[in-house]
Design brief:
Length: about 130
């Protein structure tokens, strides 16, 4: 259930960013469009990390957490490819394929390191928060 929850919530963030960019473009609000495009890239390249974090996993050690990351990586790659395609005038170029993979890897990796650091810094509920 956590796999589905994380993946669906991450997709909702991406879809909301995409909808916001449509609204920004339709209402001719350049600032809103620019913010939305930034959110699209952030949610697309960070899709695996967002899915894992919103799935409620405390570590990447479990099989469901790794499955969520794998599903998220595939989705993030597709969404990042779409964003690069749109940025390139709705045309594919050879460099978009490796760039999409690199962007997802680096962005999600950095997000996971930050998430992991923040998770480890929090005490586990029901404990005093001090080491034994």
């Amino acid at each position: 259930m956590a796999v589905a929850r994380g993946t669906i919530l991450a997709f909702c963030i991406f879809a909301a960013s995409f909808a916001l960019h449509i609204v920004g473009g339709a209402t001719d609000q350049g600032w809103l469009f620019a913010v939305a495009v930034g959110l699209i890239y952030l949610s697309a390249t960070g899709f695996p990390a967002i899915a894992v974090a919103l799935g409620g996993f405390r570590s990447l050690e479990s099989r469901p957490a790794r499955l969520t990351g794998a599903i998220g990586a595939a989705g993030g790659y597709v969404f990042t490819m779409g964003a690069l395609w749109a940025t390139n005038g709705r045309a594919f170029a050879w460099w978009e394929f490796p760039l999409a993979a690199a962007l997802v890897l680096v962005s999600s990796g950095l997000m996971l390191v930050g998430w992991r650091t923040a998770t480890l810094a929090r005490p586990v509920p029901g404990t005093s928060g001090t080491a034994p």
